[in-house]
Amino acid sequence: MCAACAGAVDVVKYLLELGADINYKDKYGNSGMSLAKRHNHTAVIRAIKSKQSKITEEENAGQNPECDVKFVEEFFCVSCKQEFSNTTREQHSSSTVHLFNCHPRPNATIYGIPENNRGYQILLRGGWDKEKGLGPDGSGHKFPLKTVLKKDREGFGAPKKLGLLENPQQSLKYLMEIEELGEEILVDRNEVVALDRRRNQTREALRALMKEESHHKTWMTVGSMLVKLPVDKAKDLLQRDQVQLDCEINKLRSELKVKVNKLRDMEFQPPVPGLMLNAMSKDEMKAVYQILSGKSS
């Protein structure tokens, strides 16, 4: 390859006479021919091509055309009930005539349940043909009925609604309801965040007032006014505000759960897992601790 790249014709011819592999490639995928073409060494290219042509002639001369001729003998096909002399057994076994005369049976039906299933065996003992449907003449259902996942929360007998494409006005109204419900969810969520921030500020103010003495007075903002109140009264106001904030946040969160599930139903999506769970009460927690302590003992 170095000789081909350098254009040394005599060295290339000598190496080819010694039996050098003309198809050898380096780690970059370059052969002697590609390197010679890249550097435009025409003499080296001619030498390699002449060697390739000699190798091809020798390979063609070494082949015996008589070896490719398959011996054809007469044979009798039991399925076709006829003798054949113009083809081989292998070719005839894959021909359309032979396959038609063999009457091949179709593949067995797969039902997705094992054949040792009790219901499957009861049907077979009752005379059922597994390649046909139910009924005396086999015209009934052949496969089990497919189950359909129920994605809404409506009960049996609920009026069937038209599809979105069948009633354009109803579809537009339906999409507007989804949009309005989504906006309500976003507004309620932002309100919960704002109330929670306000509750944290109230909690911090209560901690700060706990350090003050009860007979002192402190400044407190009420709306847009700055008022100086006794510490005890300020604590009382903050505690009432804290209780009211807790009630409003819990109410909004419970309404959000219902709205989110309704939105997912309208979008034909399954409900959020664990969204409707409620926290355990103190009595329930005590009962759980008693059970766990009893098991550990």
From TrEMBL:
The domain of life is: Eukaryota
Q: Name one Pfam family in it.
A: Ank
Q: Which GO terms describe its cellular component?
A: cytoplasm
Keywords on record:
ANK repeat, Chaperone, Coiled coil, Cytoplasm
**Domain G-patch residue range list:** 115-161
SMART domains noted in UniProt: G_patch
Q: Which PROSITE patterns match?
A: ANK_REP_REGION, ANK_REPEAT, G_PATCH
Point out the coiled-coil segments of this chain: 192-269
Task: Check the record and name the Gene3D superfamilies matching this protein.
Answer: Ankyrin repeat-containing domain
Q: Where are the ANK repeats?
A: 1-27
Any one GO MF term held by the record is: nucleic acid binding
Q: Does the keyword Cytoplasm apply?
A: yes
Question: Which locations, inside or outside the cell, does it occupy?
Answer: Cytoplasm
Q: By what name is this protein known?
A: G-patch domain-containing protein
Species the sequence originates in: Timema douglasi
